[in-house]
Amino acid sequence: MTKLLQSIWLATTILFCLLGGLSLWSTHNSSTMAHQEALERENQLRAELLKRSIAPLFEPMAQAVAQYPAVPSRRLESPAGQALLSAIDDNTPDESDISVALYDANGKILFSNHTYKIDKTLESPAFDQAIGGSASNHIDQFTTADTEGEQREQTWVVSYLPLPEEALPFAAISLERNHTQLLAALAQKNHRALMTEGLAFIAFYVALMLSLSVILRNFRRSEARHRNLEQKLQEHTFYDQVTGLPNRQNFIERLEYLFKSSAEGSLNGPFAVLLTDLDSFKVINESLGHQAGNQLLKSVGHRLNRCVGPNDLVARMGGDEYGLIIENIDDVTEAIQTAKNIHEQFQEPYMIQGHRVSESISIGVAISQGQNQTAEELIRDADIAMSRAKQNGRGHYELFNVEMHQEAVNRIELENSIRHGLERREFFNRYHPIIDVESGLTVSAEALVRWNHPERGELAPNHFIPLAEEIGLVKPLDQQVLDKALADLCVWKKHFPEHSGLTVNVNHSAQHFHGRPSLEVILNSLEAHSLRGRDLKLELTESSILKNDLVASALFGELRKMGVHLCMDDFGTGFSSLSYLHKLSFDMLKIDMSFVAEMLYSDEARKIVHSIIEMGNHLGLGVTAEGVETQEQLDILKSMGCRYAQGYLFSKPLLAEEIPDFIQKRIDAQSKTAENLA
Predict the structure, then answer these.
(1) Which of 405, 411, 334, 403 shows the shortest CA–CA distance to 367?
(2) Which one of 222, 272, 343, 354 is most buried, by most CB atoms within 10 A?
(3) pLDDT in tens, 429-455
């Protein structure tokens, strides 16, 4: 029996030991895995917050990478590198064992706060997953030797996050933190728990409960940190970090909620959206700095909040644009009154860094129209009204109407039509002859672009040139005009080989004067048609060169070396024409037609024309009078010494194939006159 009891005791002891060991082993493994998952979640959230905070610094850092492709240390020493390191330190306070890296799509580290890692290439499934567009985590364990040669295990948690294509060349970001000590502490606790295997069942149970309570407490702390990080992420998602106001996403969700409530019948009345845009923010931001600009944005937000009720919403939509939602309005006058109140608030100047700053605001107002409307459509309507307000000048407001939307749609259609017209080469040239008033012969022809619109017929430039300049299509349009004008000039010269001085005048937009490529376009066109520079006269208005006369001066110098003539068009209508004549050495002047038209009725206009002609002749410039429509005007211009004239007295703008007949008629008329005189 004793042996049996001893056997039972031994078996019970062994069983208790086995069960206790298995229980502790299982607890150890599960707690370790749970801690790792919690650490991974926390690390990933920290990485998300860090990515959002340092995202504005990616572009300057990308420039530093491009500038120092082979010198990692110079990247870190550059202003962009220092700014990025500082931002990382600000967002990871009191953490020394931390590593942040930016990768390209091939896993190469383009930036890290640890210099030795830069330009190394990472190969990891977790990184591959991030490149594929999904965040991933990785526990990295390795062994290092300390100063005494002792081997120590290190445990790091790494989170990889994908970056949007706008962050190129950066494709992913990683946040790596050292959790060796925390995991070592956990292992030590589990080791102490394993040492209790020889104790009685109650002691084993109590020790197990204590261990579980420690684990539970740690989990609660981890969950608290997790909730705190989630709250911060929520704030980044729905609130503007500069002003503290709701952001665009928050604004849209509020509108969607209001539309849903309106459909359910729980709203008392319609609601209004006001979109605002500061009229001078760019000037203030550039003159006083971004910090002053941020201070102004905060102050604007405070003033806008004074103009709305407690249930209304003021949000920063981005840049210097704000959005307001006014709920349960009785009629449209309530929304208009809010706009007026906003303008009153802006009458008082702002004090920004000791400077008195006056700012005005443009406002677009749109009222909800029922269930068939969406949040984005209401914002679009307010934005259209705001654009109209800005067109009317500083400090205006406009209420949206259907006509505004139709105008915006027409504008988009016209933009697409211009693009398609360029592709289908619907644009063509008419030519307005320029006459030598002494000989009566044609010396040149000004190319005037027209649009053979498939539905509206022939359109003059004022119908499409301003929009083409605004949307950046005037360059390819001018290129077509130039190429066609030079090709037509070649044909005319073949008709009149004895008329070697025949040239063509081509108008040039201000958008061309931005560097060497503009010059290459002109020179290549001349070379392609086997023409010399002196065969081309470029007509330029003062506005074409007003923004950057230094660049224009350099380009003009090279054009003049090639023999290209420069004509200042609409002379006398600008404010600085004389200074540009001196700086840029024009060859010709064209007197604006408004002076020529008033010359018969206004002594002042006649004096202006006479002065321009005398000045041009004194400076050795060819002077052309535009808009000559009567013989009386021509006689006066001749008496003043004007050399060239252009206008309907001689001809309307002609098609290219009509120019040879016109030139021949002028030659025949000149020959007949010479015979009569003989």
Answers:
(1) 334
(2) 272
(3) 999 999 999 889 999 999 999 988 888
